[in-house]
Design goal:
With about 120 residues, the chain is an all-alpha fold. It has a domain at about 30-40 and about 65-120. Helices cover about 70% and strands about 0% of the residues.
């Protein structure tokens, strides 16, 4: 069950959370990954986002809670998006994990969760 915080997220906020968690899953964000996330923010959706608040939340999120938060956010994004929106976020997600030309096991795990949670093959 999503928290009140999650249930208020728009597509931009929830997509941002997904991408940042993917970038952090292998221990840190590279400049290439951050470039993809900036591109997402500039070009994907026009929803309002308080970057300082969202970044602070994600930075403070304990590692052991990341997967649960990731699952909540994927469910939220799914509930407020079209198939076209989800395909767009999946494209950005793959760009994030492949930004360093290597998909690490932690990134692979979250990408698989994303596909599973959205019922995609």
């Amino acid at each position: 069950m999503a928290t009140q915080f999650i249930s208020r997220m728009n597509r931009t906020e929830s997509g941002f959370h997904l991408l940042v968690m993917l970038s952090l899953s292998d221990g840190g964000s590279s400049e290439e990954e951050l470039r993809v996330i900036r591109d997402f923010l500039e070009n994907a959706f026009s929803g309002k986002i308080d970057l300082i608040k969202e970044q602070a939340f994600l930075k403070a999120l304990p590692l052991e809670e990341m997967e649960g938060h990731f699952n909540e956010v994927t469910a939220r994004f799914y509930s407020i998006s079209s198939q076209e929106d989800r395909n767009l976020v999946l494209d950005f997600a793959m760009q994030v994990v492949m930004a360093d030309n290597e998909m690490k096991p932690e990134e692979n795990h979250l990408i698989n969760l994303l596909y599973d949670n959205w019922g995609m093959d």
